[in-house]
User: What shape does this take?
Amino acid sequence: MKPWKPLAAILSLCVSAAALAQNLTLSLGTQLPETHVVYKGFLEIKRKLEESSKGTMTLKLFPGSQLGDFKAMVGQVQAGDLDITNTGYPDMSYIIPELKLIGAPYVISSYDHLKAVLKGPYGQRMEAKFREKGVHLMDVWYEGTRHTTANKPINSMADLKGLKMRTPNVPFLIAYAQAVGATPAPVAFAELYLALQTKQVDAQENPLPTIEAAKVYEVQKYIALTGHFIASSAILVGDKALKKLNPTQKQWLEEAIVAGGKISTAGVMKSESELVAFFKSKGLTVTTVDTGPFRAAMKPYHDQLEAELGAGEIQRMIATK
Assistant: This one.
């Protein structure tokens, strides 16, 4: 039987070589438009993947909500119809309720704070829950700090009272609108500009790079630096997509996603440092508000979440360094 062992090894190597030689196109869908700085990270994934694989792997991009909103795309990834998507890290709270804890406004103070929490016990538990839902959390990129825009000056929380505020259809940002006295109006991101332009809504909240990319500054003239939420891009790869990859291809994908994250996060941070001046040059009024009342207004929601999902959880996150 000994002569057959080398033959088996040779055949195994041939199969591996053939697998590597096969051309493979992965698909990535996102709500973000091509003009968004985070999109440069997706382009870097594509570039790096093609470079590492010597052209045998590539990435087809579907930006601007072409495939639906984030919930639709998560469903497509779970079904294997789409390979990769991005959401805000806590946005899958509609199927993983514990994510509402980290999504609650004024819990996470910075991207570094977010990364520290994700490295700890909470983050490890959530990674397992993502996998239970058929998606793998590959990386978390910084997408900016969310602030509030409106069609009237915002000098204090009282100025938001009674305004119709567009939010994503996620519970913790709906809770933010309610807590500050506005009326939440969940609107799909793709419809945001039109909703503001037609006065369907009076206000909205997003990171500065998203406000710029979606041209919100054309239809809103006031920005309050509320800093209520650290936005992220969680890069999610479907379980079915990963099963299509051999170990080498999976490594190429993981390395490409990390490379994309470095480009994206650096770009967002640079953009944020420049955009206040840009918005002012466009005639917008940018105010720095006292966030104390905003934080106090969120406390009942924090208490509600801890009663529902774990006593002390939010306070442990806030204290994480």
About this structure: The CA atoms of residues 253 and 306 lie 37 Å apart. The beta strands are 24-29, 57-62, 84-87, 135-150, 164-167, 183-186, 203-207, 222-238, 285-287. The mean pLDDT is 93. The first strand starts at residue 24 and ends at 29.
